[in-house]
Amino acid sequence: MPPRVPLVSALIAAILGLPCLACQAGEDVGSLVRCLWLVQRFGTAEAVPPENDEHMKGQLARAIGKQGELTARGVQGLIDSPTFTRLAGGDAVLDSGEIARLLETETPAERRLLNSAVRAHAEWLSTSFDQIDAAHRVAGARLVQWIAERYRPGQRLEITAICTGNSRRSILAATLGNVAAAYHGLPEVHFASGGTTPSAFNSRTIATLKEIGVAVEPAGTEATRGGSGALNPVYTVRWGQGLETREFSKLYHDPGNPQRGFAALMVCGEADASCPLVKGADVRIAMPYLDPKIYDGSTFESRKYAEARDDIGRLMLCVMMQARNQLIRPAH
Question: Can you tell me the distance from the alpha carbon of 78 to that of 84, in angstroms, rounded to the nearest whole number?
Fold first, then answer.
């Protein structure tokens, strides 16, 4: 079943004649979405946080001319004047073709490696940052700052998503975090997952990842079983060409996970409460999400897993966008 369609994204789709799901390769996303992506890439630090996303889209909708053009006046407060002048050139106008070419030029190499359906879904999620709630905006801002302060080109920067059973939310967060890092050209940022009481990589989590083009395949081996004694198969999770990891349920301090200097993301309330100190973590950030497990066996099961996936993915994409902008802004 299709994922939830945020209100503003649905309005964008209706105005521009877009499908409400992720666009497919070769489809035209429309002038407004291209302008939105332009601001997300070149916008001011004040324009791009999620709390300003709805305002930004409203301003862009008013600013776009009949030919899909942008002027310095139309993007005032969204893109600073020197940057817009540099992008627009002598005529002080960015037409739709110029915007499309700028976006193509600025596409990170890693984004081109993503599975086509994964990339399309990430593009769709990037139109709805206004749907990130206040608590997750705060948590996301902490992660942005941590990445911006510690990122070094060519040096791996580790983040571990932690929940209780390492079967649903933590695996979704790690996978969508890795997708977001590739989408925004930050290959050094790597997400892992872990739990406090390991169980198994849940089949519903696998299904919701496959829905957006993530390949999840049995690796043919089994990891150590958790306290329940349930089977704990190892899977290969692949989100792009050469972009993959081995995933299974494990303790957050499993030998295969980072042991020191990492950011710990507490993506469930239970793990947040039961694990006040994460050994080896450089920073501990609480960003709990509702467990989709409560809908298991119900009519809404697949849609609620998709909702959890997209809520987490939306935040990860927004975080990586802001971190990348902070890292490259001095060059502009």
Answer: 10
